[in-house]
Amino acid sequence: MASFYKAGLWQVGKKGPPPIFQSIGIRQARCSELDQELRSLKTVQELMDLIGHGMQHFDAANVVIAIAELSKLQREDGLEEMRRHRAWPEFADRLQRSVPRLEPRGLSMVAYAVARLRWQDDLLLPALIEHAVLRIEDFGCTDVAKMAWSLAKLDIKDAARELWALLSKEAAKKCSEGRFIDISMIAWSFAKAGLAERVLFGQLATAALAVKEDLPPHTIANLAWAFAKGKCFNPPLFAALAKMSIAAVAEFDRQSVSNLLWAHATLDIVNEEVFAVFSDFTVKTGLWRQFSPQMASNLVWAYAKVGITDVPIFDAFAEYINERADDFDTQNISNCAWAYAIAERPDKAVFDTLTRCALGRLDRFRLDELCGMMWAYVRASVGDNKVAWSVLFEEAIVILVPKVDSLDSQTVSNLYWILATAAHLRGQPVPGARELFDSMLVLLLDMKVRLDSEGAAMTIWALWRVGRFLDAWTLYVRTLSDGRHPEHGKKGFVKSHAVDGRQKYYQCLLMESEHRGDTAKQVYIWKQMAADFYSRALRSACLNCAVMAYMKAGDREGAIEMLRQIARTRLGTAVTESLTRRLGLREEDIEPADIVDITIRRRPQQPSRFEDFHYKEAGVLETVLATATPGDAHSVHAAIEAVGLKEVWLKVAGGEKACVIDNVIHARRPKRILEYGTYVGYTCTRMALQIKQWGGHVTSMEMDPVNATIARNNIEMAGLSDYVTVQLGHSDDSIPIVLSNYGERSIDMVFMDQRGTKFHEDQKLLEKMNLLSEPAVLVADNVLKPGAPYHVWRIGSMPHYTTDIIDLREFGSAQVEDWMTVSWVRRQEGYAGDFQPQRELVALGREADRFRLRAMATSMRDLVGDPLDEFAARFTAEFVKLGCASTIFVQTAKEGQCGSISRLVRLRPGEVPPQWDGDDPKEFTQGGCWRSVIGGTPFLEQLLSEGRMTNGH
Ligand SMILES: C[S@@+](CC[C@H](N)C(=O)[O-])C[C@H]1O[C@@H](n2cnc3c(N)ncnc32)[C@H](O)[C@@H]1O
Fold this sequence. Notes:
This protein is 57% helix and 8% strand. It is α/β, with parallel strands linked by helices. Among the domains are: 503-613; 627-945, Vaccinia Virus protein VP39 (Rossmann fold). Strands 3-2-1-4-5-7-6-8-9-10 form a 10-stranded mixed beta sheet, with helices on both faces. Helix 37 links the parallel strand 1 and strand 2. Residues 651-653, 675-677, 679, 682-683, 701-704, 707, 730-731, 753-755 line the site of S-adenosylmethionine.
């Protein structure tokens, strides 16, 4: 029978809803009355009774309305109650027989009702699907939405492949005429069924943005959820949803709050306003108490994932967990542990409760949940929260050992990292870990499991950490060397900016082989690194480092052989010449090698991501090589400054920052300086140039082997290789090496230029390990931006520091205000101890880390403007409340045609530093022309010791 129902036509030509079924002529009046009656009934019993005695008068529309009404009245056991009624069998039969006569509206209504009732009927569902396929072109947007929703809800995918494809096509065609609820349902359904296609979702987003209705929160939240589930990030749509959600926050229910924030976190959308508004709402209204365990764990997970430690939320849910943890399933337990660990809110009570719930049932955890849980316990082991000592680890190992063959690559690397870190924290191996390590190593060496790049780095580090360096070495040589570096692996807001794992495993392998004095291994890695680079400058820089390794070991023959390789491959630079001269040879004395070393023959066809990641630093090296004079440190500094001032922002402590360091060196006259973060070797060579006059030496720690390579080349260019040691490795790993190399009380001055939120821990470790002389001076950079709140609190509140906070501007970006701190450290009360915890600092610390990540991804220069300034203002205000404010500022003036001069100026008590309103010195200052005025403004320590100030100032 030809249908007169065309969704589009109907909407244009007719009034009221489209018909439910194909009827010829006008419906009987009784049928219309029955519609009304069916719609007026309030219980399943009444409805079934009416169906029972009125069914002989029903037309197909009545049948449809009856099932629709029944679905609206459904309760938990709704379907069962209907089925028990004597009229049910006949009604079910009628319903099924009506399907061929139904119009799209009727088909979608029945499907929708059936899905709401969760009624999996072997006859009805196939019939509905078959007729929907036949009539699909006549489906309107609402019909598409309902039909898709029903299929998704009933989890029908394979049995309706054709229908899903047709629905997708119709949705794309018709969504622009749909209501928001339809669009939201369509998106939800396709996402739920795992069928989210980019094109369809793009069209849905455009359609949703065009809708001008006031929307109920659950529709907004469902749409956000669907886009997140389908991994479709549409920035304009999310900006609009955020705006609508904030406006309607008061009407959000618990499910919608949870879905909305979960969606943002899943797509790594760090909308601080949304997270702040919904935290405030959820906590203040007490809505959190109504959350289900699933919603609760999703919510804390979301805050942790985007890096927002909202203290009230974490406190509220800590209470929730303590009250409701018995209702948590394994995923909820694992997610909560993960969230509290990553948010740096390792609430002891939370972990105690989670441990109680998890112990004895670990065998029910999925492997990823189990690993996530153990990972969280390691991360959360700070202060008195000693959860890395939990027997949970032993219990987990017993479960894992027999399953080792089924572990995937991510689990293997996570387990290595977790158990090595737990052993480090406990000071002894975790019982059973050795056996697990051995069996996992077999999997890796047999290549049954292939690690991704980050996994390889974690595993190599872990093996080294537990004292199995040779196993780490074997793993590298057998599975990763000679260009077999694996893909990056994990993605996400944090991960996408993360450096390649190669950076970490080269670092670890080089650090240990240098520490052992194993030249063969060092040279092996330098050659491998050289062969990974496309850039000639970087290839040369690595081979120069190999020459330096031989020279350090006193292996003249080896050094000359390497120089011959460099000559043969024509990779020599001014640094190579300098090394040749240091060996007492001339360039013409070096005969090119007969054959090229097999390792360095390899060259990639293009730069890798790893290499691209270092484009700025490689550019600095090239500029130094092109413009500086070997042996002239000033010319090297001028070249680096020129890049930072005229080309790209460089994270070096030049300009006003250099003025502070120069003055500290003048005041303390240190013999040994320890720097955290060498980068391209700018500050370490500046400092070395000054302290070499009194026989001083700089040791600079650098975790990035590429930066370390570039720095060693720049240091050689500056003629300062005898005065600066670049200690490869992450400071956590290399501090013990520094101690064993130089001994206790050997460090007079420390310059911290690493991650600001770690300064306080690093400083405490230096004190605990007795590395500092008496008194030592500690200088820290980037304290305000991206920010080091715990550090400011440590040096501001503990009695063994005498501190100045110095207000100044970022080098090469005068509009960015920053703080440096200068503290004299003495063995007095508080030394090596902990500060009083300040809850407010946690959120500031997390925010600082988010800015740091963004600065890594772009540059500090791009991070000017509102968000960062607001953060800095909040930061400053918080510290003024706590009694910490700037005491000195740096004043800079133009000097001559192309130079600048900076000096320190002490602020009077309560005086605020002046705002920057002049020209940015980068506009007129040439590299090498920024001078510091030294002396004249004493630091607080000197004022106190000269009696010009008292401790109360
Ligand atoms: C801001 S830059 C250092 C700039 C340098 N101090 C200067 O002023 O010329 C930071 C450097 O520290 C390194 N780094 C960060 N955290 C580290 C850590 N914990 N241990 C060793 N190096 C670290 C980074 O790889 C980066 O090269």
